[in-house]
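Anyone up for a design puzzle?
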């Protein structure tokens, strides 16, 4: 674990290609011709809300607390938030087919899908994010294999679309978990705050801003440099930069398929219930009367 402090938002000066609003405006006024880039407020705003620090992470990932989780989505949503920096919506709507091996690297395909009503926040959010080795060692791929073998469509079956959105149940559970069970009192620390933790850990590990933004799926803006000269990171580069981040040394209980065998049987039964009822009680439609 990196010995330096992890509290507060990123305060490192932006690289040269992230011009300040003042310098961009001056360049435009003097005929410099450079486009004014859009600031990434979530990463660069020093007034960003507090996020879970090392002490909070240690409590949240306590194996004794994790042993009391009633469903696997609670375990893996928490782990994906820390080691992948994924958004609440991105995590909640994952499908089993979203986890795949590309060019020898295991990754999660974050993309929209009309059939399952999967959405992304914006164009930059669409990406393939590598799976950290810590998650693989903890049994993430075994969990995915078990879900596929069970025939379930969603990787986290209990998180389904509702009036509050597909991620509402995840957000409510996380809030209850950290307030009641972890005794983390700050109301400003939410599931989304773990993205700030991810970004801060990456910054403290001396990743460049553009690499952090690529891993998080943020929009760079419309600077001339971005549009014309700079290529996007490929999956191998993303994998390398992800593993440069010095994450806290948390203890993660390996996935136990036997623990959730019954859970997946029930999840599959719920998923196929409508189809089974339609097959058992077919509806007969009356033919339309001809005019």
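Challenge accepted. My sequence:
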């Amino acid at each position: 674990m990196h010995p330096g402090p992890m509290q507060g938002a990123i305060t490192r000066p932006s690289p040269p290609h992230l011009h300040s609003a003042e310098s961009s405006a001056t360049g435009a006024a003097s005929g410099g011709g450079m486009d004014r880039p859009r600031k990434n407020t979530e990463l660069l705003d020093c007034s960003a809300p507090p996020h879970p620090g090392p002490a909070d992470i240690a409590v949240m990932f306590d194996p004794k607390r994790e042993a009391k989780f009633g469903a696997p989505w609670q375990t893996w949503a928490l782990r994906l938030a820390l080691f992948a920096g994924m958004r609440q919506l991105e995590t909640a709507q994952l499908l089993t087919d979203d986890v795949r091996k590309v060019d020898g690297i295991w990754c999660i395909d974050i993309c929209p899908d009309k059939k399952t009503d999967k959405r992304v926040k914006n164009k930059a959010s669409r990406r393939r994010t590598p799976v950290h080795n810590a998650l693989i060692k903890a049994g993430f791929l075994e969990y995915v294999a078990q879900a596929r073998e069970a025939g379930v469509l969603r990787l986290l079956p209990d998180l389904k679309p509702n009036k509050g959105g597909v991620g509402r149940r995840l957000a409510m559970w996380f809030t209850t978990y950290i307030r009641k069970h972890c005794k983390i009192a700050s109301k400003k620390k939410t599931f989304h705050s773990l993205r700030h933790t991810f970004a801060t850990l990456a910054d403290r590990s001396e990743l460049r801003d553009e690499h952090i933004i690529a891993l998080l799926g943020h929009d760079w803006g419309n600077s001339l440099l971005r549009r014309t000269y700079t290529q996007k990171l490929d999956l191998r580069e993303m994998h390398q930069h992800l593993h440069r981040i010095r994450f806290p040394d948390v203890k993660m209980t390996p996935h136990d398929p036997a623990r959730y065998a019954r859970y997946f049987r029930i999840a599959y039964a719920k998923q196929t219930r409508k189809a089974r009822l339609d097959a058992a009680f077919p509806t007969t439609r009356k033919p339309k009367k001809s005019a």
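A detail worth pointing out: The chain has 15 helices and three strands.
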